[in-house]
Amino acid sequence: MSSLESVLSKKYPAKEHAKRVAAELQKSNAGASGVIYLEGQKTRMIEDNDEPQPFRQRRYFFYLTGCNLPDCYFTYDIASSYSTLYIPPIDPSSVIWTGLPLSPVEALAKYDVDAVRSTSEINAFLAGTPKASLGTVWAIANQVSTEVTFLEFETKNFTALKKAIETCRVIKDDYEIALTRKANDISHIAHTAVLKAVKHAANERELEALFIQQSIAHGAREQAYHSIVASGVNGATLHYQKNNEPLSGRLNLLLDAGAEYDCYASDITRTFPISGKFSAESRAIYDIVLKMQEECTQMLREGVSWEGVHIHAHQVAIAGLLRLGILKGTPEEIFKARTSVAFFPHGLGHYLGMDTHDVGGNPDYEDPDTMFKYLRVRGALPAGCIVTVEPGIYFCRFIIEPYLKNPDHSKFIDKDVLENYWTVGGVRIEVGSRGLTSADNVLVTKDGYENLTTAVKDVDEMEKIIRDS
What we know:
- With 469 residues, this protein is α+β, with helices and mostly antiparallel strands.
- The chain has 16 helices and 17 strands.
- It has helices spanning 3-8, 14-28, 59-65, 92-98, 104-110, 122-127, 160-170, 174-197, 204-217, 280-298, 306-324, 331-337, 397-404, 407-410, 415-423, 459-468, and strands at 35-39, 73-77, 82-87, 115-118, 136-138, 155-157, 222-223, 228-231, 252-257, 259-261, 264-265, 268-273, 386-389, 392-396, 433-437, 440-444, 449-451.
- The strands form 5 sheets. It has a 6-stranded mixed sheet with strand order 4-3-2-1-5-6.
- A hairpin with a 2-residue loop joins strand 10 and strand 11 (264-265).
- Helix 2 (14-28) crosses helix 3 and helix 8 packs across helix 9 (204-217).
- It is globular.
- The relative contact order is 0.12.
- Mean pLDDT is 93; it is low at 423-435.
């Protein structure tokens, strides 16, 4: 058994997570005591239909339980560190359709909790809570069922718990790292399958289907997010969704796709030539983006300023675009004017965990500085966080043309050189847009980092895989 599988053979460390959350509550709320209360996601029906909506567990609930069942409750007595999971009782009328549900005995063996009860017992338990624990019930606003009552508690707090869980979720333990690594391993297999198939595919949807098929076949039933399978012009749309256009006549494919394993996400982007050989322009842009990613990744360690890393990505992009003649002027002038935002309009990356854009990054979407407005993580990175490093360069008329009309920016852009990129494109072929991104998932450590992503990004290796397929 590999070390990865050895870690994942154990229970998800829910008790340790609950202790961390309780400690965080006490840190921000002196003397915090009482009961933590959480609800899992409910079974919800499709409108005007007798089928349930696809189920996705509430991440705050999963973090303290490791339970991926619908319609469950959870309580944690802070004073005694005693956790109880409440699961739905058997509904005899549904057994013939869906089979027997997990029993309390089976649930106790599977999940890292102290007791398992029926959801029908939740109000009786809350009403019978020992006096010593009746100070405060800590819950999340709009995530408490109407039939649940907190009448016995002196105080109800619906704000602090969510923030405490978000703070704790930033730092990953060994089990969470193993889940993320597993998701990345599966995504690597799926990305490689797409590389091998791209030359023979006729439409983006074939490649999306292949990625999903490979993910499921290797144990990841869910996707972390809607895959972006963007050929040619479509790659300039950052979260392109259609995935249904023909590949004929397109130079490159941008594949942004990640499998989810046991509620933990991966997020990987690769751009590669459909024919198996980058055009000169595509290769020039790819090399700039790869340099952006490699240098930014090498900066990662505990305490590094994420804004500083993001700034460095822009500085590398400016230097590269100056070498190509797309930009003109001095690097300092271009950076001060924020003209590089026309070509690199998004943030460098984000925290990764149970959500693709995971919690705890404290973004400031009202920041008037366009370079930082979409930066999803602010401040110093702690050891134990997992962050994506995903720089990009895009040539999109809709984004760039306003810069060309603004003399504060147009003086730094060589329109004649830029004209070559509208039509030729690297990862985009058609007039209108062009872009290239590469994203890896990186664990920040005290003295450096560990890259959890193994999907191919070396140009020679990518091109060889495509050509030899």
